[in-house]
Amino acid sequence: MPETWWRGAVIYQVYPRSFADGNGDGVGDLAGLRDRLPYLAGLGVDALWLNPWYPSPMADGGYDVADYRDVAPVFGTLAEAEALIAEAHAAGLRIILDVVPNHSSHESAWFRAAVAAGPGSPERDRFWFRRGRDGGPPNDWQSIFGGPAWTRLPDGDWYLHLFAPEQPDFNWNSPDVVHEFHDVLRFWYDRGVDGIRIDSAALLVKDPDAAPDGRDPYTDRDGVHEIYRGWRKVTDAYPGRMLVGEVWLPDQERFARYLRPDEMHTAFNFDFLNCALEPDALRKVIDTTLATHVPLGAPPTWVLSNHDVVRPVTRYGRADTSFDLQDRRHGAPTDRALGVRRARAAALLAMALPGAVYLYQGEELGLPEVEDLPDDLRQDPIWTRSGHTDPGRDGCRVPLPWSGDEPPFGFGGDPWLPQPPDWKDLTVEAQDADPGSMLSLYRDALALRREHLGDGTLTWLPSADGVLAFARDSGLTCVLNLGDAPVPLTGEVLLASGPLPDGQLPPDTAAWLR
Ligand code: NOJ
Fold first, then answer.
1. Is 199 in the active site?
2. Regarding beta strands 195-198 and 94-99, do their DSSP bridges make them parallel or antiparallel, or are they unpaired?
3. Among the options 60, 246, 369, 394, which is catalytic?
4. Active site annotation includes 246
5. Which of 199, 203, 380 has most ligand 1 atoms within 8 Å of its beta carbon, as the pocket-test mutant?
6. Cβ–Cβ under 8 Å, residues 467 and 487
7. Mind listing the pLDDT tens digit for each residue in 71-101?
């Protein structure tokens, strides 16, 4: 594989806690993942992005990291992680690891030391400790998960956490923090990891004391780029490794700064993820994406979902098909059959576009969002921090169904979140041999993509109202009908997301042609 393998790769996101459980404790783990590597290789993906596997109190599903150089016992051991990396490589799969630089865990050695050392200590300088103001917090910042972004210690100091109180924010002005993360990157690159996904990448630099300057006080501050220039230098010493940033920024000009040649290689395309399944809106996002990336020589990424967002099958069956991180529209009426049809079409669109594709576990099975989880089992801190008004993200994190007619559907032990009984029709086993299943569509599409698609450019083709049609460098064309009436097709159909009565492309259907 070339050193720039990531430019046109299909990257499968593994949420380890919910992928497969090898030891029967109801929580997915590395043993379960190692057993299922043949499934992933057979699916036809190029790389795996694993959500955090580090020791963690799990206050935020592992995004509260207590030790960046080890593996949580619930997932396995460092030796198992090394074995997994080697086995994945042998199966032709690269590994991308999640690194969380904005915040730590309140149980990390550094934060414990900071708490113990007391106000004014150098240990506290690695985080954001401040005295309060008028008996309250140092400023009025709110946590992204709800509630105040500051928590007070008994000694009177407050510390900053843009997420949960169990996730104290690092102070990136501290040289210790800068050196620590360079070392963490090297630690994992030395163990064969092929890439790093950078969590909350735009939030690292903040100034709680600064006078308001009209810009967001902690999102996308100019100083953040210096950090990624340092990370790029570390990464460039390891050929074939890459950085992909979680950069949620609506402003494309600001977003593009993260993709300059001496910063990240790629970043997630959240404008595409958020976009409604509407022809004009989609075309605009695709054009803007290409206009942002092409001049920088950075490949776009195409992302329809991840562990933070509503599953496409549910979302696309709603009247409003857009996604909004601030309003998940939990419980909005959804038409499952329509959602499935559209999710199939959207998958063919995403996989035909030039660049890399991210695919969240379970999308290839067409899993819906589970919206009726019992409240007392919900784990997402958003649920408690929103005062039980926002159910949060557990509904897209329910353990995968592999086989059999009843829960746990071959997942392993009693799953940490319950699976709906009607997932018996959505198991890998149930879909495996059915040529009309979502799983077969993904396999077929990924095989064709490997041959004809990937990195490169696209050319828009003339099309009827409500229809998107474009050709790729290989000559393969993709047509997506989001209008109200069937449209005629010209060429040989290689793959379609649904039936084509009379050879025409019905609404909410996509086809690949040659
Ligand atoms: C983004 C991650 O995707 C999300 O799951 C997490 O809660 C926040 N960052 C905080 O780390």
1. yes
2. parallel
3. 246
4. yes
5. 199
6. yes
7. 999 999 999 999 999 999 999 999 999 999 9
